[in-house]
Amino acid sequence: MKSKKKKALRCPPLLSHFTRGNRALRDWSTDAHEDEDQDLNFTRGELMSMEPNSTEGGAEDALLRTNPSNQSHKGILKHGHELEEEQEELAEHQPLEQEDLNFEKWKRKPLPKRTLHQKIDDVKTYLWNAETNEFMGRSGKSWSLIILFYTALYVFLAAMFGGCMCCLMWSISPYHPTFNDRVMPPGMTMAPHLDGHLEIAFNASDRKSWKKYAKSMDEYLKPYNDGPQERKNIHCSHDRYFMQDELEDSAERKACQFKRSWLGECSGLQDPHFGYSQGKPCILLRMNRILGYLPGQGKPINVTCGVKKGPPEALEEIQFFPKSIFDLKYYPYYGKLRHVNYSAPVVAVRFARVQYDTHIQISCKLNGKGIINDSPTDRYLGSVTFSLDVGA
Question: Half-sphere exposure of 144 toward its Cβ, with a 13 Å CA cutoff?
């Protein structure tokens, strides 16, 4: 049998021969079954003549003795099953026909192009289907359920967001921060500060070149006018911190006066050009406000200015107004809700003798306990650097 299987595998064309043989075998087995059924029709007397003491296989032996063709019939059926197995193995190894490898016939045929009127009709049907009474593919009940669901969803989300915000605002005080244990030292800003550029360059004889600086200085000092300061703030003569912690959180704090007239020649009252027309420009320095911060640890913070880049002799004389320090009486700051009329102190710097047509960089620094003025990452922390170029 093994030799036959090997021969069948080597000769795939023999498949048709085995197929015809298998068909003939099935026809023959059908006739054999009919003969078997006729032979098995024993008479009642023949069945009764069998010995009652026979074993379990006695009936089968009797059938075999009565019809001896059964054994040969079983052998033929077994041979037929083997032929079917060989046929299946040959079918697995038989190569595909060239017609089966043509995949073009299996491709999906393209749909015919739809006209513009058909597309418009499809859109109209999608928007409103008169047969099913559906709008955009949904019935009125479906749209009602969707609208109800999303309305309930967004109402729930809005209520949850509002509840979270209420809890957050209830836990935070509007007057002072909850945590204030990592306050950085103050920075310093200057005026004029135009378009984010820390550069002052002008000609004293050219009004257009310095007019913008004088206008910026005047706008900056308007809140410090003497009239509003006298009406809103109190006169403070002491040289210590102005503590008002004993008041309630919501109570308004008093603020000390800082008058514009104290700035002398840089106030813009005596010289509305702030010295720019004379080649002696003024600048204003202010320390950043930090809520509850006590600078200097009981001692005033002073200000110094000097040449950072350029010839040192280009800047010979520097004047400070009203003084070169920030008085302690303006601290601490209690925030804009309680310190409504608070005016941060200002130090005015006048460069009285500047060498013309010389580009220099000037650095002004805060000096005192707890002050950092040499940070490599933050140029405004405790200091400010700008360029100055004065022409005749």
Answer: 3
